[in-house]
């Protein structure tokens, strides 16, 4: 089970930058009470651990026969799958026969490199878009669709769609061309969808049992509504982070795991937190970080820069490799002291030292502790962070499931690209391009 | 040549969130005048484009005979090399015979995977540490050193050191064991060292001519002290970013390139900016971002969250792949409009639409424009951002070349690991571990 250490956010440890236990517990109780009213249907993600995965497993069985598996998707349709790939099958494409590419950005160069590397005949393409109208995903889908057809290959053998159960462009095409499809449950929105077929199909393809992910998530889901605070760490975390913003004006939340395998989880969490809470002038900026790497990059700023951050460590007890650093160069003190320790001791000691250094400088920090990195724990982490984020949204009084602020940019893109119904926006782009620029 | 568009930071475009041209130009002039006094010897990095690279080229020639090239280094010794690898040789390890691993973090699992993949006999290890005392780098060096010797291989054939010219542990070992070595110039500090052997050796190994990088950087260096503002975009950028903090309290600087190949440049820049400026309570938080990806992650927060950000776009005119999106599914409007455009048009239109959307919501943003991504332009970008950062440091009145805030964490690590002279810190760690924790 995941544990949460919030000692270094308390007044008794860091003085006036800290919070009192009573403040934290009051807000934590409030978050549970708000959640219990189930004010949004999108809270259905909490029930995902109880789904039936037989259809996913069946399609994955077939998918494992292909040498290349490509995910086309962006945002919630890419970040979750990427966490699963990098956390649970690191260096996948150098170590394993099934190579996986997650093409999210519409970068033309990346596209070119991927098609140079793959063999289309041995490639299965999983197109993921809840709405079926994501411009980036559809653009790359069209390119692959044409290539598959130009080579006289059967689209039914080379595509799997993951999309809405009832509507959208992908649903229409799937019906017309009999493309195998998986459904994203109606009430689950993109950034909370990693535990749907969005993430679970890829998991199964790379050999991760979806039931292990769900089993881990289930332990967390079962605690979401518990009023006994000692059984509800999500409520504590949501409360602390919310109060750090509201009472202490700390507007940057650094997510800092000490494991390369969790680097992409930082990015996944940053989408979840930013898009869920950043509205109505509210929310904080989640910062994707990595230890020990960022001790040599960001720590200086955290220690001596503006007083605007909360650091959330993720520490891993067992990294799964215990080889000792050899005892060599005894006469050189700068090397001698390392001998006899393991890399695990070093990375975990650095995590501890950084947490201590921050505390000694009165900088608020917290720690999520996990025993190791495996599918069960990754499932727990996903659900833990998703529920925490939803709870924080309820404390802020915002809808944690919409993203109205991205519509304007989409409309302008549609206008510039000539989509029907967006002619006004097209004109606006044209006028913008005519403006005088201050440029050197 | 790199261009800078700062229209969307001006009052006439974004109202009271903006700056006046006269404010910007006054501060820009000040930054040039401060730089011209050359107040720090570490400004020597500006002269790096004029170095002789013959020794680097000679060692690289030999290095290209190995199948695996491993960089051991962290912070400035890893981030710069990683930019070169990913910007100039994308998917290197899937496409090319010379595989490169940059092992920075002391993650035990990553170490295990790398040694499973490589063949030690065919591996050259470049150990990079200016001081020669970086714990992470030395720990992994010791593990590789032992493995090389256990296999009765010649250390002189499998290691290259990149370190200080005069002192430090690596220098001592290099002298004793005749390890081929390259020097990091005395006055150049880690995060400004990518254009020294730190980055240039790797460049040559992956087939990038170091003189092209330096040629690009030279064009920028030659403009560093120019008082004619139209020839000094670095002064404009430093001035705008400094004033956005000082006058508008915008404490988060989002670095947002629209190209996968520049994703790691975001991370490199974030070290440069954070460690150079984050001191004495000053500085802003540089945020590593990527377009279009983060339009589906962070844009919601930028558009409707707290008013604390400046967005710095990097847009790329030519992405080097012009294939058209096919015109298929004419009857589905959600797909029809994409046909006939290229991915390049789409990604660049999205960049433009996002910049417009931010401007329409009065959010300050700026844009660096580059014609394409190649070694010349990457050299320019490095030097452009390094000089801008140093200038910003001078405007803030801080020393942009030190990092006093990371010392405490290092001392505590030394203490916990049993390094001589750090017994007090060792005790502090022990006492810390005995404290009561608030943990659930």
Automatic annotation (TrEMBL), chains A, B:
GO CC, alphabetical: cytosol
Pfam family, any one: PGI
Pathway: Carbohydrate biosynthesis; gluconeogenesis; Carbohydrate degradation; glycolysis; D-glyceraldehyde 3-phosphate and glycerone phosphate from D-glucose: step 2/4
EC number: 5.3.1.9
UniProt keyword Nucleus present: no
Any GO MF annotation of the entry: carbohydrate derivative binding
Subcellular location: Cytoplasm
Alphabetical UniProt keywords: Cytoplasm, Gluconeogenesis, Glycolysis, Isomerase
GO biological process: gluconeogenesis; glucose 6-phosphate metabolic process; glycolytic process
Active site (catalytic residues): 275 (proton donor), 296, 410
Main location: cytoplasm
Record's catalysed reaction(s): alpha-D-glucose 6-phosphate = beta-D-fructose 6-phosphate
Function: Catalyzes the reversible isomerization of glucose-6-phosphate to fructose-6-phosphate.
Family named by the database record: Belongs to the GPI family.
This protein's name: Glucose-6-phosphate isomerase
Protein's organism: Thermodesulfovibrio yellowstonii (strain ATCC 51303 / DSM 11347 / YP87)
Record gene name: pgi
